[in-house]
Every structure is written in C-alpha cells, then in structure tokens.
Design brief:
This protein is mainly α and 317 residues long. The protein has a domain at 144-316: Alpha-Beta Barrel (TIM Barrel), CATH 3.20.20. It is built from 9 helices and 7 strands, in the order H-H-E-H-E-H-E-H-H-E-H-H-E-E-E-H. The protein has helices at residues 2-9, 23-37, 69-86, 133-137, 151-155, 177-199, 232-235, 238-256, 290-316, and strands at residues 56-58, 91-93, 145-149, 203-208, 261-266, 269-270, 285-286. A 3-stranded parallel β-sheet has the order 3-4-5. It has a two-stranded parallel ribbon with strand order 1-2. A two-stranded parallel sheet has the order 6-7. Helix 3 (69-86) links the parallel strand 1 and strand 2.
C-alpha cells in the first residue's frame, strides 16, 4: 500500500495509476530506493548495495496499472535502470505475477480466460492489469523473470476455504475442483518457463501457495483415503502437498534440463497460532506441518543435486 502514501505526498497526483506517471511519485520512489540501497547492514556494516547476502531486488511486489500497461512498461524501464545505476552488483527483477497481454498468444492462460465462466473466473481481470510478461521482462536491465501462481485467489475458493464463504467464488462444483486448479498451475508454470527461455533469462517461481482448512479436521468428500502412513498430521495437507509437488516438479525438471526455471519460493511460514498469526493466513505453513516440510526439503535437495550435475557436466565439457 506504500504507493497510496506516495499519491498523498504528491501535490499533482490524483488517480491510483498516477503512481507510475506522476513526477513527484516517481521521485519519491527513486529517493526510497537510493536510501535503501545505501543503508548499512546493522550487523556487518556492509551497504545493502554491496551485501552478498542479498539475492536480488524486486522493483515492486505485483505491480499493476489497470488499463495503462504503457505506463507500467515505461516505469519498469526507468526504475530498473535507476536501480542498476546505484547497484550494479545485484540482479534486478520486476516482481510481477506474470499476466499476459492481448498481444501474446498465451493470453488464454490468464486467470479469467479459461473454460469456467462463472463467478470470479468469468471476468478477464488479469488482462486488464497492465502486465505484459514477455515485453516487461525483455527490458535490458531486468536480469531474471518471475511469476506467481495463486490458484485459489485467481480461480475461486470453491474447493477448500472457509475464509471465502461467498458463492461468487464458486467457479465450478464438486469435490475434485482442486484437480482442475492443479492442472492450471502446471500449465501456467510450463508456459512461463518456455517464455523465459525464449527471452534468454532465468525464471523464479517467486510466490505460490495453497489454502489449507481452517481447522485440523479432515474435509469429508475432499481428501480421499487415509493420511499417508497413518500420520494424522498429513491428513489436512494432502491437497496442499500435491500443489507444492507440482510446482517443485516443474522447477526440478527445468533445472535438470538446463532450462530457465531455477528456483521457487512458497508463501508463507508462520510460527504463532495466536490472533493475527498463522490462523490469520490461509496459506500458512506451520512449523509442525510435517508432510509439507518433507516435500520442501526434498525439493531443496533435488534442486541442489540437479545444479551440481549440471555444473559437473559443464566442467567435463
């Protein structure tokens, strides 16, 4: 919400989308970036722009400019160049979800463009958010591409979540709706891997997650069979583990083949069960979510091993 604050500070901005075009807003953003990059790590004394512990920079988390993609595109070019001018040592990316514009043949993959045409999935909202995955990431100073995938947010909470008890979100029916979402996740990631390869840039699946039940009980009709190995801690998270595995498989396949996808990051780890803690986030991964952590550990090992095999192959050549 920091962009709204910038609008309030500016004497010339009005509409929300002015964040990307208003001179004062753009200056405030550049000032923020400059101050941040020149901040010293409290523990090491190293400037952030020189700190090897930092992987890279997002220009913004999920930038959108509704019906003004031209403004977002120009802002990305300007700010990516600005960040690079102050910090040539770190990689820069946008932080986009990865929506496609109408100029791309993959626009049909955008949420709201599929076969399910009721509720939230009936509106082509993603097409209107100003992103153009391919053109935006083709910018010279953008070093790697990102995509996010949120099947519950994008396609409706029909299958799982008591947080959204709203029939408008029920884009289909039946206990197997999660399988359709799972197939969508795979198609979405595979498409972005291929497009990142065409750009010649790495891809990180920067955000993904799957909502979990509000309580520890199993949901009748949703989770078939018993929990794995009879472990009750796995019963509630069987579906979520399938989604994590699908993302991880896509990334591991790409890494093993020397493809564009190089890593992934799920949302989100929570420790507390107090108000405002883990129970407040439907995508929480608690410290005791045994089966999900097994999947995450296996993924980390598989990516490390695949990277090592690729490195050995390069050295041998």
């Amino acid at each position: 919400m920091f962009c709204l604050q910038y609008l309030e500070w500016s004497p010339t901005a009005g509409a929300r989308t002015d964040f990307y075009t208003d001179w004062h807003c753009r200056r405030h953003y550049r000032d923020h970036v400059a101050r941040f990059l020149r901040r010293r790590n409290t523990f090491t004394g190293v400037l952030y722009r020189d700190d090897p512990a930092i992987f890279g920079w997002n220009l913004m988390n999920e930038p959108r400019c509704t019906s003004c993609g031209w403004a977002l595109s120009a802002w990305i070019e300007e700010m990516a160049m600005f960040v690079k001018s102050l910090d040539p040592h770190h990689m820069v990316t946008i932080g986009e979800e990865g929506f496609y514009s109408s100029s791309c043949a993959r626009v049909h993959l955008n949420p709201g463009s599929g076969d399910r045409r009721t509720g939230i999935a009936s509106s082509p909202w993603a097409l209107q958010e100003g992103q153009d995955f391919i053109a935006n990431h083709a910018v010279r100073d953008i070093d790697f591409a990102t995509t996010h995938v949120w099947p519950d947010n994008w396609l409706g909470f029909a299958d799982y979540s008591p947080w959204m008890a709203n029939e408008a979100f029920d884009y289909t029916s039946g206990p197997d709706v999660w399988r359709e979402k799972l197939e969508y996740v795979t198609r979405w990631i595979d498409a972005h891997v291929a497009d990142a390869e065409s750009l010649g840039k790495p891809l990180v699946v920067e955000e993904f997650g799957k909502a979990v039940p509000v309580s520890s009980r199993r949901l009748d009709g949703l989770l078939p069979g018993e929990s794995v190995a009879g472990d009750p801690r796995n019963g509630d998270f069987w579906v979520r583990d399938e989604f994590f595995r699908a993302v991880h498989d896509a990334v591991e396949t790409s890494v093993s083949a020397g493809g564009a996808a190089r890593g992934s990051a799920f949302w989100v780890v929570h420790q507390s069960d107090e108000a405002g803690g883990s129970d407040a986030d439907p995508y929480r991964v608690g410290f005791d979510d045994w089966s999900t952590w097994q999947e995450v550990r296996a993924h980390a090992t598989n990516v490390r091993d695949a990277e090592w095999r690729t490195f050995e192959g390069v050295c041998a050549a």
